[in-house]
Amino acid sequence: MRMRFLAPVVMSVVLLASCGGGSENKTEKKEESAATSETPVDNSMVTPGAAEAAASKGAALIEQKDCKTCHKPDTKLIGPGYKEVAQKYEATDANIDKLADKIIAGGSGNWGEVAMTPHADLAKDDAKEMVKYILSLK
Ligand code: HEC
């Protein structure tokens, strides 16, 4: 009679203990995973994420403009392929600036006699985004 009365009490103590232990472990794990996932999130906001965002902005601008009537990523069309351009120029600030001006002003001479049409309505910053994207296509 006494044991029967005690059994559920003992059981619930055991259960409580194991539950308590379990939830403690869970919180520890949560903290751990929060700590480990924080670092990559921070990194992606500083470098790779930012680079990707910039590249996709340039890609989107190129899509909106007439560039693809004369340029393709891999092969020469009327103008050089973007990968050829990326191989010819390093992605330095000076080159990005120079190529952005060239897209806006148009002209020939670096790849042959055929001239690129001017894009006078293009903002310099947008042209730079496009060049950054092109030069990322090595
Ligand atoms: C009418 C055809 C045409 C269009 C449209 C055109 N391009 Fe070009 N692009 C050319 C030609 C031709 C060249 C080679 C010029 C040369 O020999 O200096 C060139 C060269 C380039 C170069 C390399 C410049 C250099 O001096 O090496 C870049 C970068 C470029 N184009 C980007 C663009 C972008 C971005 C657009 C869209 C805004 C665009 N092009 C639109 C024909 C075109």
From TrEMBL:
Sorted UniProt keywords: Electron transport, Heme, Iron, Metal-binding, Signal, Transport
Q: How is it modified after translation?
A: Binds 1 heme c group covalently per subunit.
Report the PROSITE patterns cross-referenced here.
CYTC (PS51007), PROKAR_LIPOPROTEIN (PS51257)
Quote the biased-composition stretches of kind Polar residues, using this chain's numbering. Answer: 34-45
Binding residues for heme c: 67, 71, 116
Please state the span of the N-terminal signal peptide per the UniProt entry: 1-17
MF annotations from Gene Ontology:
electron transfer activity; heme binding; iron ion binding
Organism superkingdom: Bacteria
Under InterPro entries, the record lists: Cyt_c-like_dom, Cyt_c-like_dom_sf, Cyt_c_ID
Q: The Cytochrome c domain covers which part of the protein? A: 53-138
A Pfam family cross-referenced in the UniProt record is Cytochrom_C
Which parts of the sequence are annotated with region: Disordered?
Answer: 21-45
The protein's name is C-type cytochrome
